[in-house]
Every structure is written in C-alpha cells, then in structure tokens.
Description:
By secondary structure, the protein is an alpha+beta fold. It has 8 helices and 9 strands.
Amino acid sequence: MMKFPVQRTCRSSVYFAVFFAIFLYFGIAQGGLADAAAVSDEKELVATPYVTTAYYLNVRAEASAKSKILNVLKKGASISVVGKTENGWLQLADGTYVHGAYAKPDGKSVKETPAPAAKVRKLAADSPRKPASQVVSDSGLTEEAIRAIFKGTGLAGNDLEQAVLEIEEEYGINAYFTIAVMKLESGNGNSKIAKNKNNLFGLNSSNGTGYLRFKTKVDSVKKFGQLISKNYIGKGYTTIEKIGRKYCPANSKWPGLVKNIINRDYARASPA
C-alpha cells in the first residue's frame, strides 16, 4: 500500500529534473545567440572613409566647438566616420568628433571593425603654441583662451571666438594673427568704423566708396579670412612681413606692431 505514493514522488522528481534541464539548455543557447549577435553587430559597423579639407582640423571629445581638443589633423588626412550628429559633427571610429564642414567623403563605404582616427599629434590640454611669422600655422588656441585675450577690450562679448577659430580651421590662418590685426585696425574694437560698421579690420570696398559695412562683427571676421586666403596666402604672401607690405603699404611698422600684439597675447594665453 505504501509503494504507490513513493512511485508518484519519484516520477514527479524525474519530470521536474527533465523540465529544468530543457529550460537551462534553451536559456544558455539564447544567451549565446545574443552574445554572438552583439559581436556580429560590432563587427558590422559601417565606417565611411573621409578626407579633411581644412588646413588644421581640431578633433574634439564631444560634438561641440566648446569641447576639449584632443588632436589636430592636417589637410588631406584620412579619417573613418561612423556617424553624423544633428548639428553637423562627424563621429569618428574612436568616438571623437570633427566638424562636418571641414571633411568630405573619400570613396565608398566599407564594413570594418572600428579603427582609430588618423592623428597628427596628441595635444596637451589648453596648449597654445608660440607664434611665428608664418601666417598659415596652428595656434593651439581655444575659445576660452581667446575670450581671455579679448577681456577688457571692445572686442569682448561679441561672440567672435568661434569665428576666429573657424577661419583658422578652414584657411589655416593662425588665430593669433587674426586677433592681432583685428586689435590693431579696430583700436581694440573701439574705433568708429568698428562700432558703426562692424568693420574690425579696416577693410575698404573695391569700388573706392570707403569702408565696408557688415551686418555683424562675425561677418567681418569671415570676410577677413576669405580675403587673406585668396588675395594674400593664395598669391604667395605667407608671412606677416609680406602681408604687411600689401595690406598696409603706407605704414612700414605694421608688421612689427602686429608681432608685438601677438607676443603679448601669447604671454597672456600661455599657462604661467
């Protein structure tokens, strides 16, 4: 009489063990498939080859012009782009960013495992480099450093910092040079044409009607970059001395004045 309950108990134990084994098997199998899919997805990331078009293109930690500069790429450098942000920045394969306005596709997309972006050099944080006579060079300045250079002048508070860095990236014009000419020609932003016409560089019209008027001071900076790139650097005027002979032929001291401002600004921007 006592055997049947024992048999029922044994059979229940067997059923439970079988069910648990099946559950465990499928759980492990599904986990393995998920892991394999994750690995597969990582390998299937699409990296598009791009080439940089700016003379000096900053590689930043985040998709923002205010973000920390991690590297600098020279014109023609190859980079691997894996994404694009809504505000126009390109995400590189190593997780850093460059602005999309200064790079273009170079060939067809290829499937590849993410690889580090091309690098020219690793920068120390906030590391301005000593300026030279060559106008086409990298300043190493940040928006914060330029803001400090503008402090206490009529140029402060006009959102000029990003514009100055943009013409350095697009045309290679050293930011120290742009700032120095701006200070000299506008009386530190306090001259009449700077205030009334937003003209920070003493730029004249080509038809002889006087100083150019700009909608904003930022527009004045952009025009200066275009002018120096096309009419000066593009024609062999690549040093401060050479540019001075054409930009301000009536004042032989112009190059020296520009250099003096550059040296003072460098001392102000450099860490103590």
